[in-house]
Structures
1.
Amino acid sequence: MAESEYQTVIGLEVHAELDTASKIYCGCGTAFGGEENTQVCPVCAGLPGVLPALNRRAVEFCVMAGLALGCEINTYSRQDRKHYFYPDLPKAFQTSQFDLPLCRGGYVDIEAGGQAKRIQLTRIHIEEDAGKLIHGPAGTRVDYNRCGVPLIEIVTEPDFSNAGEVYAFLEALREILLYSGVSNCRMEEGSLRCDINLSIHREGEPLGTRTEMKNLNSFSAAKAAVEYEEKRQRQVLAQGGRITQATLRWDDARGLNYVMRSKEDADEYFYFPEPDIMPIALSAAEIQAIGARLPELPQARRRRYRETLGLSDYDARLLTSAKAFSDLLDEAVALGAPAKLCANFIMGDITRLLGEAGLPPERLPFGGAALAELTALIAQGDLSNSMGSKVVESLFAPACAGQSPKEIVAAKGLSQVSDQAALQAMCRQVIEENPQVAADYRGGKTKAIAALVGQVMKLSRGKANPALVNQILADLLA
Amino acid sequence: MVKAGASGAGGGAGGGASGKEEIAAWSMTQAAAGLARGEVTSRQLTEIMLERIAASDNNAYITVNPQALAEADAADARRRAGKARSGADGIPVALKDNICVRGLPTTCASRMLANFTPPYSAAVAERLAEAGTVLLGKLNMDEFAMGSTSEHSYFGPVKNPRNPARVAGGSSGGAAAAVAEDLAYLALGTDTGGSVRQPAAFCGAVGLKPTYGRISRFGVVAFASSLDQVGPITKTVADCAWALSLLAGGDPRDSSSLPHPPADYIAGLRGVAGLADAGGSGYGGGGGNGGGRGSDGDGGRDTYGNGTVFGAGQGGRPRIGVPREYMGEGIQAEVRRAVSDLAAKMAAAGAAVEECSLPRAEYALSAYYVISSAEACSNLGRYDGVKYGYRANNYDSLEDMIRRSRSEGFGDEVKRRILLGTYTLSAGYFDAYYKRAQQARTLIMEDFRQAFQRYDALLIPTSPVTAWRRGADFADPSAVYAMDLCTVSVNVAGLPAISLPWGTDGDGLPIGAQLIGAPLSEALLLRIAHGAEELGAAVNSRRPNAGIGTGPAVGAARDAGAGSAASPASGSASSTGAGSAADAAGDAGAGRSEGGRLDG
């Protein structure tokens, strides 16, 4: 039978570290990259006799994520212990949630291959992160800094049928988590990780045996791993083989999955309710209050850009693709800046210059106030668009650090000349130096005026106000 | 064993009025009074205790605090400066070795933690330190608090001070033995299934297991988190009440601790008078439930002594129920007779006492062993040889290192519980065991809830038998587990309960009577227990005589000496003692809040 008869069924488990100041059960900090074992206390190190005290903020963040993703929030939920032995897990159990998670259901709308699709979520629960093993020539060390950093695990229904959908989902999910402010979603720091379950089957037949791919640390790795695994499974079945249940690990460098463990050591976690932490009870009013703190999410923002700011759907999508961009726009607009002009700078010069500097949008060296000031200068006719671009370049330049657009314009003499007398003098000079063009214009070739305007702009080194020059030339030639 | 020579060593201690033996035999309340009067110093009390600990061979202590005398001197200096932290400032105390104290080994009597020194102190250790007590050391126990004999210790078994051939009970056997042999004025144990009450009963001491959550568990090495509770072991009920006043209260570090402010547990103690009138306790959930009494039509209900059954207008009399499930088969006849005797005497003193029923009692033992083993297997997973504690010397992989470290580091009883817990939590067995145990737990709690609509307290034996021989060869482990019959339901339901001595058996071994109260009813429970204690002054010999042997002759000798041995403790403690205890508790409260400010 042909490979193409098989359908792929994929479900995801996404782990996102919550951006709380302290860990989930103790007061230790959560900052990434600290020196080994400097953010550790007896509680997160699991020493004998210590007890966890739940960080309410972690619960609130999970509820915010749940509300942002359309989940139903359970007013009564509980934490459970999930047991396994590994040196990075100091208590030999991970405190997680088993049968009573904080959030149930929910969905993410995606667009992949030109088609809209809704991916249903099963649940979202809170749990604690484990530490990290550091393998070196002298042996293996354990760093417990990450131990007890709060996580949410987002489990989807098996709604995906290809790698493109997985990729689109991860992008959309990341965007929502970033907007809701619960996670910084930095994949390079492990703040967002995903496990993938994949099986293939023929339509109308039961689901096939699935394999699980662990800890995919980038969207492109997730996509590549899915493509690799579905192809592998198809080949196995095509050759009359059987898929065996296994946990795989993706090797990004080599572009293949390898087996971590097979079914013989199937997961047995001895779950039972965590007796040291009381159940989490949330009233409807508390859930509502948490929801009220949820910032505007990307879909709502796009709608507002179209409907209130009059931007095109295309602009709205581009601007919201990075929260930092859309925050920049909102800041500038709040200070009275024209939305379209701001949008053009963000999508044009700013995006280009960030790319050249190799910076992510959130590392933009200036804020909405600078953009508002810049666009105000242009709107008032004190600065041309092209000079505006030069100001943006200067805003990126370390030499101009801390300078406002006005200061840059003054320092570099970029101000647009709108002085009537000065412009009239320049226009007369250009008419005198280009008698033939002037004659053409007078003879009815109205387009010839553009050449004269260009000459004036050149003479002014770009600082002349082109609209005013046009007007003066027309008057002089009339 | 008390060495006669102790009285000749280190002259000067004790001042003119009291000899060392007498001072050592003081209750905590009496010792506090001695300090307050200037009759003794903390250094003298501490030296006497340290000498006795060094001379004793009951193996009650695992670690003696090298700082004890320095702490005593500091307490004396505070007292001289008029800055005593509380009435308990300078009182020598000891802690079971599963209660962490910063800088002192906390071994849990296990090879696994033989070299573990915590960098933090348990909340209860902090509270005692804030009250100014002197820490004598850390007490022997069953490994990780699993056992009923204190024989399962990496540091050897504890001997019962009443008879060294007998077990001290467990798991807080060191705590009970220390108090019974005058090696501490107060010892803290932990009670997961009877581990404070049963050894107190075996050694002839008073042991209180407070309501679950009444005392912070922070820093107490977990055995079974939903059952563990710290409890004091003392010589008198008043001392227990005082200790509870020092220890009770919420703690943000322990989510299971109760925020309810502790009561003044001493103010309400009234001796026998408390058995005629339980009023003023502020607790009395059953007051409006008179209509329900007798509605089960149990016409054959036994009554005790005065034939009292509940009737109108008895709101002031404490109502005591005696559940028949704990007074029948499987209970040693002498134990049954002793508890019946106490019931009759309480009735004669004015309490309304009657037989009652806890129909689901039979499930408690099984539910307890399933739940406690499940939680234990989880709590003890962290001892893997990776971070601290015992690590095997030879291993050929990470997995092998963990396996060998646990195999070599844990004793047999701990391994048995871990295996049991692992089994009951396994996929496919969870519903059959753990889930059903939790359901049974709900039923047991409901039994008690109904009982406490009728009764202020329930009276049963603490242990079905008296202390058995050390090294006794039980046919199978569950036969030993069955000895926990009378204590575990209290933990399963999270209730407060107190064991107090009530006479001895034919071998002269102490019998413990257990009073159980409704949640957070410690004040009332202690008042009733205080009355019972006073009733018992004539039948109890509080402490052992020197030269303990075995056999009935010794028991008779002790009974003969009971008059003189018991009267200074129980006689004066219940009149003058209670008064000074109340004063001291007032000081204790002030001391604690002052300590808080200093820390803050």
Note: Residues 433 and 440 of chain A are 14 Å apart (CA to CA).
2.
Amino acid sequence: MRRILSVWLPAWPIRRLLREGWPADRPLATVENHGGQRRIAAASRLAETQGVIRGQSLAQARAVCPALVVTDADPDADRAALTRMANWCERFSPLTAIDPPDGLWIDITGCAHLLGNETTLAKTIAKRLAPCRVAIAGTPLAAQAASRAATSQPIEVISPGSEQAALQALPVTLLRLDAHVVAGLRRVGLRTIGDLASQSRADLIARFGAETNLRLEQAVGKSPHLITWLREKQPLSERVAFAEPIGTADDLAGMLDLLSKTVCARMEAEGVGGRRFVATFYRVDDLTPAIEIAMAKPHHDASRLIKLLAAKLDTIDPGFGVEAIALNVLESAPLPPRQCNMNGTLQSEDLSTVIDELANRLTPDRLWRPIPQASHIPERASSIAPPLDAIPAWPHPPGERPLRLLRPPEPIEASAPIPDDPPILFRWRGAVHRVQAATGPERIGAEWWRRSDPDERFRDYYRVEDQAGARFWVFRIGLPGQDRAPEWFVHGLFG
Amino acid sequence: MFVEVQAATAFSFLRGASHATELIHTAKFLGLHAIGIADRNTLAGVVRAHIAAKAAHIQLIPAARLVFRDGTPDITCYPTNRAAWSRLSRLITLGKGRAIKGNCALDLTDLLEHSQDQAILIHAQDETALPALASHFRKRAWIAAKRRYRDDDNLNLKRTADLGLHHFLPILATNDVLYHAPERRRLHDVMTCIRLGTTLEKAGLALAANGERHLKSAEEMTRLFRDHPQAIAASHHLASLCKFNLDELSYEYPDEPVPPDATPDSHLTYLTWQGAARRFPQGIPPDIKSTIEKELGIIKGLFYAAYFLTVHDIVCFAQSAGILCQGRGSAANSVVCYCLGITAVDPTEINLLFERFVSMERREPPDIDVDFEHERREEVIQYIYTRYGRHRAGIAATVIHYRPKMAVREVGKVMGLSEDATAALSAESWNAGETLWNDGRLEEIGLDPKSHIVQRTVAMARELIGFPRHLSQHVGGFVLTRGRLDETVPIGPAAMEGRSFIEWDKDDIDALGIMKVDILALGMLTCIHRAFDFLAQRGVHFTTLADVPREDPLVYAMLTRADSLGVFQVESRAQMNMLPRLKPKEFYDLVIEVAIVRPGPIQGDMVHPYLRRRQGLEDVHYPSPSPEHGDANELKMVLGKTFGVPLFQEQAMRIAIEAARFTPQQANQLRRAMATFRNVGTIQTFFDQMVDGMVSRGYERDFAERCFRQIEGFGTYGFPESHAASFALIVYVSAWLKCHHPAVFAAALLNSQPMGFYAPAQIVGDARAHGVSVRSVDLNMSLWDSHLDEDATLRLGFRIIGGFRTDWASAIVHGRPYRDFRHLASAGLPHAALVALADADAMRSIGLDRRAALWQVRGLEREGKLPLFAGLPLAVRKAKLPVMPMPEQVTADYQSMSLSLKSHPLRFLRTRLIGEGAMTCAQANNISNGAAFFTVGVVLVRQRPGSANGVVFATIEDETGTANVVVWPSVVVTYRSAVLGSALLEVRGRIQRTAEGIVHLVAEHLENRTADLRNLDDDTITGPPARADELPRSRDFR
């Protein structure tokens, strides 16, 4: 005989947002897209007092409550938060599940006595998860319905077998039926579950569908209702303890070798790869130094792991001796098995090995790769990204670009025929360059929508070659004859 | 001398960032003597450019930039003569016809087929199509040479020149202009982002690198092309080749309506005298005779006879098909139109001013608008298409411009403003002029006016206002020509099936002297026709509006009581307030009534003086100039009939002419300037001219300014006296029907929905208040339309049930009579129809109330579909269901039919409300001026008229009637959410009662009581409550 506890967390999306730091003193609501219109999905108490209602269009809600703060509804985040809540509830029972969008189920069959009795268990849970409503019954649907009933009691315990009686007066909406079915039921006057139960089964099925009848039967226990309980994953870790403390580098390396092989074998069996590992050394004097390794991509290759661990082993001081070593996988990700070549060796490794070694020797953020960024302004035409991320294709630049740009561009003095012909000579870092050949101007306008550009004049770029054959990329800001004199700079070198 | 031959205007939608006028002025300023305007696959913008170019005395080269779908490079096509223009126009029509609205699908072969006498400029990137083009166009083709200010410009130019050399095509220098000045680059970037659906941050390389695509002077272009001077000379050569001018588009009326042995003038003369004899059976009065002769003379002198005949032809068709119609607008000033039966304004009753309609000086084509029954207007349109053919008849376009709300929304998105901020800005977009988004308003809505992004957004949005977004079909303006219409202007498909429209709008058509007839729809004409049909069943036969007995004192008495719900034009709250003050006694009073409750007279503050003088409270005097400037009575002619107060549009115009010495031309320009929303700064010059003109002749400044304000207020709502007179006739007829046959009138109104100011619930309520007995929809008794039984009870029709279909109604009527449910179920009606009937409680005649009916109908759903049981007799089980309480019944009625005959929702709350001390609406309307009131009612309609400075007017209703509530702006601010969000509103305040008995409830405290409506029916309504009534949204807040 089961006993199921249902927790109802009203306005769960709002609660999650408030926990994430959204302001509690302003009316808050979440918005969803419903057939092209933006509608209120959930609203805080404060918003409701000002006239915001669930299902209202956003425009209407703003009209009645101009100070409304809105954000997009995020059902995935809500579910994730609910799952975390359900996981936390495992202290009450090993079987917990989420009841989206705003509830939890806990199977407390046989658990109640650990906290006294069912009532005290319910009270404890209600207090810890407040504000919420809690109900216990013999079927999940009955508990769910009872917890959402609009009474003032925070707790309701339905004694075994009396589900039907308890549900008698509750409204039909609580049975989780489709909205149009509920509307149809109301319209013919069947408003409470008791009303529904008093009709004949055949009549109900004929008029309102088999599901309606099924829900009714599930609620009172005549039909089964299956729930998928959550299961938490077991952490990946291995530990080896020694009869006598060890302290030499070779011994430690040997033990790490053993541990790595075991852990990697487990990961391979489960089809996952590790991205972060920590090896903790338990010294006799209770100190626990540790080595942490991070990988660019998940893998379960023991030899690589050993190599990286060994590289850092000399940072560990074994003190008077190490009596145990533990190797934990802190972060893992799914990793399908790799293909073998015909002769049994694995296919060649890729860049990630080298990257891993470099990254772990230096710090990870000193390794980067340039990627293109869509902008006409040359110094903004590229940016940096982590080394192994996918790169978008480099677009064809509108003109030739030097490989390296000077940051910042260096001022030069130049003389050029007005208004916008290329310069004939210029002086840079003390040296004078006479221009033999030039192209341009290539006119690049300022990105006028940016706040940070103080100077909104355009730049005219020229590729110039001096008498020694060196090529420069110079530009001029502004035209002669304007309020400010034009300024010349060299921005880069070709070749 | 360089000429820019490729400039795109704003009619290259979201690609061109300048108006044609700006381009022309800049060209003039830069010293260019000609400019080529070519928009993308359209000729929509050329007329504006043409007018601006004429005013600026530079040559316009009208052209089109053709964009192809088969990989051919863009080609700008310049017609060198009229025939070439026809070909270009047909080419574009061909392309548009192949694609959906707004698009154009062209292939190179199409251009080659229409190539005679065209000159082309090829925007070539490579050799595609060059050989074919070169051989086809011989000496009239050039390749475009452009300086893009890119690194490889010189190289590119050389390559282009070489390409040209290779294919024997000379190069031509152009800047491929997209805007008139370099500053416009920003707006162009914004437009690009709007077009691509991205933001400025993300657009990246899709935006132009620089802002060089502006109009450049000849010196600048010569300098830029100093290595290729022949390219510059080529532009001059092209300009000299293209001497085609839009003035050459002469216009010819269709000649169908003229019989083979007559001329338009002779036929018109014949028809006019014939019609006059009919209109004046006792003989034509001599002054009418002379007016007819005068009008016919003017018409002959201006060659407009064919126009009148064309309109007459259409009206004849309508009359022969039994469609009620009536001309309106300035056309009602014409006695000839009256004789032809186009208009119905009797010249003996109203002083007609033919000059208002057509004048020798104005040289504008006449413009006749005709209203038809709205449900049958499509027949008239199809007649026109059939008679003239789709290639000679087309609907005019309207240009949909960016309005403040849309502009700031699009720009906000592009600038990356958060959605909240954009929404707040666009909600604040109903102010005009400089107050739009000024600093104060921005702070009020929570935006920082100093913030860079806000400033830029507002600036860009302001620039975007007034730019065209796209073309759309005009409401009913038809253009008819003798030759092919698409040889004058391209025709393209509309979004609506089977409709097409030309690329030019009303202003363009007027500027070129093309004729237009407005075929409009008027709901009240449909209603009147239906009423006539009902009356015919009762032996009372009317065929036209003129058959209704005139000047019936009972009708005027009814209107004076403001008992005008349903009556044309005078049923709004504002009109109901005016009727008891105006106290109409004769037809001309109705003409005044129609014209007076309009922004024009209200804004000009003419309403109160008029009423006071009418009531004898003030002396009638005419403003006059000082003696040395003019005759003291110079305005008496103009203002005599309205007690010295200008109320009609042409009175205000005449004042401008007589008192401020405007020429008729200028007065007309003034009228037009007011009629467009884009007041482009010329308003101030007109203001100065009028006020200073009048003051300098001795008028009082205050009067002069008020006259100007009134003209401003007329705007697009200007009512000429003749127009008011046309409408007044319809007002009278509908009032007569309401007065003498309320049941017929109510039924006709219900069957002509949607129309009018009120919803069916109010129409039914008003009918019952007048003693009409109304019966609910019934399975065995109703038809699709509401109709009258022999004993004059009104039986509601199936159409009143939400979602009901005409074919269901026919099926139901066909299978009658139904004895019981079993019989009904086996009649083979669709299940959805049965559900709708059950929901509407329409099965009482077979003994089933709503619940029982729903129960039975739901049971049918399964049983009908099981093939095994198909042959067995239907089992009908009785259900044991609780009785539906009355509040639920009423709510269910409203949900299904938007009205209830059983009761009003407030009746159920009455006991509780009495307990709270609230009074009914009827009681509130009866207490004395200044007394306190407290009442609760369902909100029927809220209005915030632009001329009333933020005041909100609301009408609330309970089971005893309606009451009008006034909420002053300060109160609106305090109780904003109650005012905006209530379906049920509680109001407390003080009564304001005028001498004529008009009562307003002035609100001091408001509360939203919608929750009480919900509690009537527990939680049947799960979402936000459906209002008790739904009213035409357009009357509420925008």
Note: The first helix of chain B runs from residue 20 to 30.
3.
Amino acid sequence: MLLRASGERDHTDYDLAAVTQNSGDTGVPHGDWLRKLVEAAIAGEWGALGDIRRDAAMAMGEQAAVDALTVAAAFNGITRVADATGIPLDTSTAESTVELRASIGIDDYAYAAKTERYG
Amino acid sequence: MYPPNTRLRENLREAHSATWQCIAEPGSFWRGTERVSMVSEARAALECSLCVERKAALSPNAGNGNHRCATNLEPVMIDAIHRMRTDPGRLTKSWFDGVIAAGISHQAYVEMVSVVNASVIIDTLHRCLGLELPALPAPIEGEPSGDYNTDAVDDGAWLPVLAAEQVMNEETRMPSVPYIGRAMGLVPSAAQLFFQTFRPHYALIDIKLAISQAQTEFVAARVSALNECFY
């Protein structure tokens, strides 16, 4: 949802549906490389990630590849804080993203829905 | 903690070293040895066959047997840490209520969430850069302080959170203190520990990285989706 705000500041219409899908182009520069880095990192595919990191560094620059992974590492932690404390969306975000959440599947992750689904 | 050739910024290196040291110290509700055990247990979860079985099952409550554990933490803590580490997207309110009913206070739970997930950030970054995990810090003797925020409020989360006025930032369209910044507000030292680790990695605006804000938000959003995180 912050990607949408970022797009508005950049006057760029990113395809947000591609965020929740396993393929697709959001329109973010080097999105393919960022996707590969993140997916290998979160899946814990460390061997593959070494090769991806090297290739991504050639495409985007070494510092950019490292920075992308620092962001991924941070969100691998903070998403767990949110999930473990059951915090709701901030009111402004909840109000401004009703259609977006439904259309790209984020509502499936809502804590009430998970409790209903998994007990 | 990190070799000099890893292209990590100095403030991040310093923050992670400080976090590692802080984990070893007595917290507000856990001793240093227990906090270090939490990190050890989070690592053991990645090699746990019960966690693998549960992750692949339709229900997060499937699977028999015991966790492959590395510590003598209480079983309820071991289960909580393993679930948080390996299947965070399927944590539920009823699961959380079970942890509390088993005798873990809200305050102790918050501190555990902070310690485990600060270590998740540090361990993930090491793995991402092809580095060995850092050696566990040596626990420091001492008793927990028992300090917590008596002004925390019930405001829609599973446990009391930091009370904060919701002033909107027009640029980010987020409150001045977003909910995630309030989530561990019941135990200020826990919030401090986690966010001192997290903060050098990310900013809501004007990010000082070699990737743009939009690229940063895409990475963050993709991680959230893969971890099935609603927030």
Note: Chain A has one domain: 2-118.
4.
Amino acid sequence: MTTIKQRQEELVKEFEFFDEWMDKYHHIIEMGKSLNALPEQKKNDNLLVQGCQSKVWLHAEKSGENILFQADADAIIAKGIIAMLIDVFNNQPAKEVAVANLGFIEEIGLKDHLSPTRANGLMSMIKQMKFYALALTD
Amino acid sequence: MSYDVQSIRQQFPILNQKIHGRPLVYLDNAATAQKPIAVIDAISNYYLNYNANVHRGVHTLSQRATDAIEAVREEVRAHINAEESAEIIFTQGITDSINTIAFGMGAVVSKEQNIVITAIEHHSNIVPWQMLCKRTGAELRHLPMNEHGELVLEGIEEIIDENTAMVAFNHISNALGTINPVEAILEHAEKVGAWTLIDGAQSGPHAKVDVRAWNVDFFTLSSHKMYGPTGLGVLYGKREKLEVLPPFQGGGEMIATVTLEESTYAGLPHKFEAGTPHIEGIIGFGAALKYINEIGIKAIAAHEKKLLKYSTVECSKIDGFKVIGDSKNKASVLSFIVDGTHPYDIGVLLDQQGVAVRTGQHCTQPIMDAFCIDGTVRASFAMYNTKKEIDLFKAALEKSITMLR
């Protein structure tokens, strides 16, 4: 099983493949498109991540020691970003998610490339995922 | 003389740069316009040569600075054809201007009265009136809009009635570009003796305004939307109206006498100008006004109208493109959505291609609610935009849509 660290390294490698940011965005969008959508009935306001410009719904549940995430967003780039985070965190031990260091964001250059409000949105998503993980840690 | 957009562009050095490796196409002018060299030079010149506080000093620099800002007051008066320069008040911006009036009206509005706004106002022309109504118990009403983003004047006499204390509305909508039927609304307000205020945020850079021809009581302008510095607005008010309103803020400059128990206020315009004014801003704004008048507001408006028409026709060819606010009478704003895409995503991808637009609700949440949308993408044009830039914008938009669908 791959660890959080390994998954990040894989993501960084994927993005190194693209020189232009338009292509990186294209990749993010494709990740957003392939993320399984949250069923409409699950999209309630309780799941909204506070601090995002667009609407992002995040759901978490426990599976043994591990944590499973589901998410959706009304804007596709936001959905792509949460898809990347889910890629890294999904089905990983909750206690590790809660303390994980997300170096890949720096390495991809994602944070520098987002507008300040969007970068705040990204931080809010991470915070919310870690918050769920902490709450679901025994 | 033909309109020489290339020589105008040379006066705006900021436009000549690349964003993410592509030439900048700046189409966020309704948020703020770029500044010509004349404005930047005027501000530098002030700090290099005659920086001093105004209205207080007997020394030469203070006199020069005072003369400079008072000269701008007179230029603003002439620009909007006010009767006297004492009716021109420098504020922090339109939000500050409207709050000044809404606060002052707390002294003259009673709970039997009502305030009328419209369905297509910026939040800054909604919230101050809501606060006034909360303080006084007055009722807040609004003129509705139709599916084209135009105000509906049928039934206006039931909305603006003999109990209406104030009718406050914008000349041109920032979110939709609709040019409102100012004269017709003013006529109804005048008939019942209501006070009137026009938010000129989008008129300043795009339209000729004559406050006396309109016979409007209050009018506001924003410097930074007119190629001038940020942090400065203009509040025009008829003398007899301004005189009955209490000042919004107390402090230096706005007083005649101060004892520890009580103060008397200065006359107009100083009564409404507490504290040291935005001196560099006023001086820069003077240069901006001069620049606008050199090009000519009518020539600018005609140029922008061509850009609006061209962009509307061209972009409408894109599958799923939908203009939000398609009034026949529009100025300089192309607000739109594209089927199957989110405005934020379009905005991000346009930026990646060097195109700057605004996305979201444009501080006009009630309009977005009425159209049942979360927001729009807004391209807004200024004197320096070109047909070629519209082509770049359209190509970038098409590429973005292909990526998003």
Note: Residues 38 and 291 of chain B are 7 Å apart (CA to CA).
